[in-house]
Amino acid sequence: MVSIEVLESSPSKIRIRLKGIDRAYANAIRRVAISQVPTMAIDDVVILENSSVMFDELVSHRMGLIPLKTDLDRFNLPEDCDCKNALGCSKCRVLLVLDAEASDRIRTVTSGDLISEDPESKPVSDNIPIVKLAPGQKIKLEAYARLGKGSEHAKWQPTSASVLLETAKPDEFELYIESVGSLSAPEIFTRAIQRIQQSLTEISAQIKV
Ligand SMILES: [Zn+2]
């Protein structure tokens, strides 16, 4: 019989003992947690002004790597959204705006300077550096965030660690999941289980012809 025991649980990490489970199944949870549980990340950036020393492409790349708070009940993956619109809608896209200028001293523009149209979909921390501006330099851009999966690009991975540890018994493992902050660690675990269930349901539906 399969049983689980939560050894440690907080928004940032969870440690679970899985008993009576085959290694392949336990490893499936670990892998799905990394690559199939969606999170929100910036995917499209329109640079309106950039007089910093950093190229537009580099600024855009850094924007993509900022973890954003994610509410999976309110947003759809673009491919699943009923808007079927390449530009997206309020259920599959969030706009964040950055408008910063250095006046008389050097200024470090951080994730906290980003203003999101959706107060819940914002950077997990305000202290992530984006670019340094010298006096007189300016940066102004629009960034569009959407849900995506780690299998598409690492910036959508919800985990900073997802590890399966051996124990003394062959059918017992410890799963350790650490979150980047977009989703809580317990939610990553439960969403991974739901994703596996969904895949199995889809497979059995195809067999039942
Ligand atoms: Zn949509």
Number of helices: 3
Strand pairing plus helix content: what structural class? Answer: alpha+beta
Order of helices and strands: EEHEHEEEEEEEH
* N- and C-termini, Cα separation: 31 Å
How would you sum up the global shape?
A: elongated
Full CATH superfamily name of the largest domain: DNA-directed RNA polymerase, insert domain
Q: What molecules are bound to this protein? A: zinc ion
Number of domains: 2
Residue windows where pLDDT falls under 50 for at least 5 positions: none
- pLDDT averaged over residues: 96
Radius of gyration: 20 Å
Major sheet size, sense and barrel closure: 4 strands, antiparallel
- Beta-strand portion reads 25-35%
Strand elements, count: 10
The CATH topology of the largest domain is RNA Polymerase Alpha Subunit, Chain A, domain 2
- Assembly type of the chains comes to single chain
CATH architecture of the largest domain, please?
Beta Complex
The CATH class of the largest domain turns out to be Mainly Beta
